[in-house]
Amino acid sequence: GQSLEQPSEVTAVEGAIVQINCTYQTSGFYGLSWYQQHDGGAPTFLSYNALDGLEETGRFSSFLSRSDSYGYLLLQELQMKDSASYFCAVRDGYQLIWGAGTKLIIKP
Amino acid sequence: EAGVAQSPRYKIIEKRQSVAFWCNPISGHATLYWYQQILGQGPKLLIQFQNNGVVDDSQLPKDRFSAERLKGVDSTLKIQPAKLEDSAVYLCASSPGRPPYEQYFGPGTRLTVT
Asked: pLDDT tens digits, chain B, 114 residues: what are they?
């Protein structure tokens, strides 16, 4: 079967750093994407990793280890507006397989 | 550039009624997706089009759901007859189909079946 695992909920403090992990088991692998979704909103693209290593975009970074079938999203200098659900998704051929999402709760 | 457009934004129907959703993707995007998202879950792919051809509809309940993409642009998703468990947000997304394979989502249609 195909599965992605990520924590259902993570809590952090404003200004801190938080890491959201994602492990996957899929028949094929072309890349790992991360999406952000605010309550009542639509998912928006954050990052895509096709190769091992760290990709940085502003306060957000994404990491991939293909040998470990593992990736993470790192959010730095947390702001209240970062409160949202974060989804990892694996590109397997032409389809994108989504995780169940991690709800990030930020406390002041 | 204009984003993905969807309508209606909200719809309330009774079970066994029919409903249709419309999606206009970003101009030039060859790939179009319809997702169903139940509260607290990740998006579930219902159908994926490449231009006006179906790439994947393996999770589409074909006894009640149908979708088409005429002329490779706009798309409609229909449910007939609706069941209570169809209550969800229906998201349309489009993608240019090249790395990083970013999917651009519309605002979604929140369907409530009573």
From this structure: 689 999 999 999 999 999 999 999 999 999 999 999 998 899 999 999 998 899 999 999 999 999 999 888 999 999 999 999 999 999 999 999 888 889 999 999 999 999
**Which residue of B100, B102, B105 is in closest CB contact with A42?**
B105
Burial of A51 (0-12, 13-18, 19+ CB in 10 A): exposed
Contact B108 A33 (CB under 8 A): no
- How close does chain B come to A12, measured CA to CA in Å? 20
Residues of chain A found within 8 Å of residue B93, distances taken between Cβ atoms? 43
**CA distance linking residue A60 with residue A12, whole number of Å:** 15
Q: What is the DSSP letter of B9?
A: S
